[in-house]
Amino acid sequence: MNPAVHHGDTKDTENLRKPHISLSPWFVRLGLWLIPLSFLVISFFYPLSRILVLTLVPQTLTYQNLVLASRVLLFTFYQATLSLLLTLLLGLPSAYLFARYDFRGKPLLRALTAVPFMLPTVVVAAGFSALLGPRGLIHTILTLSSLPFTGTLWAILIAHVFYNTTIVIRLVGNALSSLDPKLEAAARSLGADSFHVWRNVLLPILRPSILASSLLVFLFDFTSFGVILLLGGPQFATVEVEIYLRVLRLPNFSLAALLAAIQLICTLTISLIYTRVITRTTIQTAPRSATANTRKPRTTSEKVFVVAFAFLLTSFFFLPLSALPFRSLVRLEADRGQRGEIQYGFTTDYYTELFVNRRGSVFYVPPIRATVNSLAYAGATAVLSLVLGFPAAVALAKPTRLEKVLDPLIILPLGSSAVMLGLGVILSFGAWLTSPLLVPFAHTLVALPFVIRVLQPAIASIPERLRQAASSLGASPLEVWKNIDLPILRRATLAAATFAFTISLGEFGATLLIARPEYPTIPVAIERFLSQPGGLNYGQAMAMATILMLLTVISILLIEQFRLPGAGEF
Amino acid sequence: MLDVQHIFKTYEDKLLLNDISFTVATGETVCLLGASGSGKSTLLRIIAGLEEPDSGFVFFNGQNLSSTPPHLRDFGLVFQDYALFPHLNVYDNVAFGLTRSVRRLPKGEVKERVANSLEMVNLNGFEKRQVTDLSGGEQQRVALARALATRPRLLMFDEPLGALDRTLREDLLNELRMILHHMNISAIYVTHDQEEAFAISDRLLILHGGEIIRQGAPAEVWAKPDSAFVAGFLGLGNIFKGEVREQTKEKRWKVESEFGFFHISCEHKHSKGERIHLLARPLSAENEVNVIQGIVRDTVFQQERFKVTLDNGLYIYLQKAPKIGEKIEVQVRVECLA
């Protein structure tokens, strides 16, 4: 017995303190939802309704608008389908390579193929421009001006493949690596050749994962914006690019709204099919450990395949990424009319120029301000999305009927594209466009679903027992939160915050629409530099993109660090 | 002294606890024994303050705890899944309760208490270890040390050994019993395992259908289960129905069943033709009038004895294994369960 312990106040029976019980009452849940839901209503559902209302008026649904919209839609489908086919062409053999063979540098190569997916679109576009563009390395060094790249459909397709191959490698590769290679051996022993092994054994078994990855790739290609705008140019207008053009270049808001509504229907349909496919994919044949199924290539043809493909993947993924920082530090200027005589050499001019506020430049401020703006916006986005995401994640961690209804609503902004979100914000809060606050607001909308998805499982993984044990040891509800929940969630919170930060840094579509000219972000600044003539502007775009790439890579490494459990697994 | 009075609790429209009252004296270990879903864990959580009863009270030393939140009750809790804090090492886990605002102890005393508690559970030197690196048995020892360190006025165990294997369970159970006696601490021990219950408790409470259907010292309950459910739940022997034929003497009855006629002595008043439950203890007893017989179908070696199953479903413990197919006749004690 411990006489020092203070026991409950018996006199004060009126002041009933609620015991710490597992199922919080409905008003607590509603309180948790209040802030995130109000935010979503204001920043997403209200703008969405503005778009839909604008779509359904007779002035919008004109013959001319509909013809234009269907032409744009057709091209969007066309380029997305081509991109998907090319992605599968590279992705399926790559998935097989990673799932079946061991070779030196495999983990590194695998990581390399995943890097583009996490990079901002402007960085990828800048990377390809640095490698293959008119001012790029290959062009200027080999003076192959007869080989056009930027401004062609090929540029778009290759950038899409570069972006999305990792999805196929991940999804199909995972399915394949959990598949017993003895199945292939059995098929061969029954007389099937390689073609029949693929056609009659592997493809049917892998079909769900191929389908799932295809839908995902198609979705990303369908709503792709930065790559198409920066590498293709306005003549390759997809729905997303056309919305942007109809907002900023040739203002026609009703056409923009119509396109946005059409795009939303398409993306939601694809997402819905994807969700259905994914739930069916989980039924798999007996899974095995992934390491047991890989081995070193043995026969000559296996060795050729492995070496050739590893080389192909390495060059395809490494060259654009390395061309960018390289090009930002090298002057490559062919004098006008004197093709072949190139002045080149190492330079830091492109970086130092970022600090200069030149009269007549595309900015009213030194371009480096864009970096400061981006970091500030990203910080604000991280804080805002944590403030909004935490209560929602707490509620979703222990779902009741209320959460089953609200969960899809929270994720809905994911299904809508960035430019569309920007359009909605402009339509709803056009009067506020002078406020720089609008940017982190929009970025939070994009980041919130990711933040919730990172926090929710972490919160759910804390057993209620821990809190009960703590309170039986004398911890007040506040102490329980401070000493149990917070320390355990520290890593997940940091990961979520960095996630939001990274998303904000690279966000391009929505920002392009709503950022004020004097408050550019890094991606917006890169776009402006690229759209201006002159080697100096181009070099500065490379420098900016390199800075953005570095910041993103650092963030990605940090996220991985936070996600890795340290002392124990929890 | 803990005094639980008239606890009612419904869960999803089902009456889970129906007017539960009992006391736990200082230094006494009371075991709540019941099948899963019998509401024993809920009762424990109500006492701990983690859940509210629909009605009823929990008193400790005459003080009503109904409005006292769990962290001010000073009741220790040990869970089946240990509930160790994964972000803290062994020392910080055990010290957790000692550094809370309700009883913030000076640093030196915290250190001493942690060392004491760890010694009590034989984990000296484990202070710096990560709890996630420990085995299940070690984790449960840490959980026990953590609960002991605050020296709670009541210790509660919710199936604390359920996740451990058999030999570990027996070892820990013996240690636990010695610790509880040594500290003279009041304890409630919840389990569904009757062996555990018999081994640890000073008094047994058997929970069934939301009510305490039998309570008493383990030996007392074993000798007089008083109901077919308790006898069956505790695995005391063969339970079957019989029909009262006649009263042979004062408190002596002749009963007919599918296994033959039995003569029982019984305090109850029975009427002719009444259906009653009988318990045939599986141990052969030399000077009993009652006999069960049958053809041996199966024998299982169980260390110091054989469990022999007969073709009619009855079982019996014998020192020597009979042959399968052999017809045997054994004298046993048969009791009335009413």
Characterize this entry briefly:
The complex is a heterodimer of chains A (570) and B (338). With 570 residues, chain A is mostly helical. Helices cover 71% and strands 2% of the residues of chain A.
Structure description:
The complex is a heterodimer of chains A (570) and B (338). With 570 residues, chain A is mainly α. Chain A folds into 2 domains: 293 residues, MetI-like (MetI-like fold), CATH 1.10.3720.10; 212 residues, MetI-like (MetI-like fold, Orthogonal Bundle), CATH 1.10.3720. Chain A contains 22 helices and 2 strands. Chain A has a two-stranded antiparallel ribbon with strand order 1-2. The relative contact order of chain A is 0.13. The N terminus and C terminus of chain A are likely disordered. The model of chain B has no long low-confidence stretch (mean pLDDT 90). Chain B has an 8-stranded antiparallel β-sheet with strand order 13-12-11-14-18-15-16-17. Chain B has a 6-stranded mixed β-sheet with strand order 6-7-8-3-9-10, with helices on both faces. With 338 residues, chain B is an alpha+beta fold. Chains A and B meet through helix 18 and helix 19 of A and strand 5, strand 6 and helix 4 of B.
